[in-house]
Design goal:
By secondary structure, the protein is mainly alpha-helical. It has 14 helices and 4 strands. Helix 9 runs parallel beside helix 11 and helix 13 runs antiparallel to helix 14.
């Protein structure tokens, strides 16, 4: 595939992204995605030729097949590629992802590819612990848009959302209290558990449901472990209205069913 660039083929394909014919645009995006997949040389060449911004414009297309193929290419282009990811964020890729995830009318395939990319980007952040984590990963609205995907009846989307949540939970800046009180991760995980219990009664879907339940429990374990660290280190604060102050000007109401002593929150401070 790197020979394609030497022959001037990549430039031709990238120009195809601007073609007025949607079929040519989609074919060009598919070729770039296929060529870039796990190929750092081609990724670098496509990035240098300005392919990424064009593909990101295509992702916003109202034509679902075009948007899906473009997002496939974007994902392949920036996967395991630091320069590509930096360019993606510079082009407001975070807002693009949030827009796709928060709009329930978007095509299901587009949302699957989007949350898969979120999981991949979060994993990249985990692997580069020495780098400053991007603020959008801890944005409450963004996190809620990911958690809300677990309510989907599409098991593939549900699985990809759980993987994304698992990776996001492992980031230092992801606040467990935001996931608990703003995103209602407890309720979301419980609903998934109940759904999977029903699916396990069906012979045709039992094995897949059991695999998903293992993933759900893994997410739950990481999540509760993160909450426990807050309790143990006494970093939670309550004001006179029983709101949590978690810093950065954010506070969330304490759920009435929570008993702090039962949960072991021995070090919670009251802020008046």
């Amino acid at each position: 595939m790197s020979d394609l660039h030497k022959l001037g083929g990549l430039s031709v394909v990238i120009r195809g992204l601007d073609n007025p014919d949607s079929e040519i645009r989609m074919t060009s995006a598919w070729i770039l995605g296929k060529a870039s997949q796990n190929n750092p040389v081609v990724q670098k060449q496509v990035l240098e030729l300005g392919g990424l911004p064009k593909l990101m414009v295509m992702v916003k297309s109202s034509f679902k097949q075009e948007a899906t193929k473009a997002l496939y290419a974007v994902s392949a282009l920036i996967r395991n590629n630091v320069d590509g990811q930096e360019m993606f964020y510079a082009e407001s890729g975070d807002l693009m992802l949030q827009d796709i995830l928060s709009n329930s009318t978007n095509d299901i395939t587009l949302r699957r590819k989007c949350v898969f990319l979120v999981a991949d980007l979060a994993e990249s952040q985990i692997e580069t612990r020495n780098k400053v984590e991007l603020p959008f990963f801890s944005n409450p609205l963004f996190l809620k848009s990911v958690v809300d995907l677990t309510a989907s009846t599409d098991l593939d989307l549900q699985e990809k959302a759980l993987v994304a949540i698992k990776n996001l939970l492992q980031l230092r800046t992801t606040e467990a209290l935001v996931l608990q009180n703003f995103c209602d991760l407890d309720g979301a995980l419980e609903k998934v558990r109940q759904q999977l219990q029903q699916l396990m009664l069906e012979d045709s879907r039992r094995d897949y449901a059991m695999d998903l339940e293992s993933l759900r429990r893994e997410v739950e374990l990481i999540y509760h472990g993160k909450l426990e660290k807050l309790w143990r280190h006494g970093t939670l604060c309550l004001d006179e209205n029983s709101h949590f102050d978690i810093g950065a000007g954010q506070s969330f109401a304490l759920k009435p069913e929570f008993d702090l002593q039962t949960l072991g929150w021995q070090k919670v401070k009251t802020v008046i």
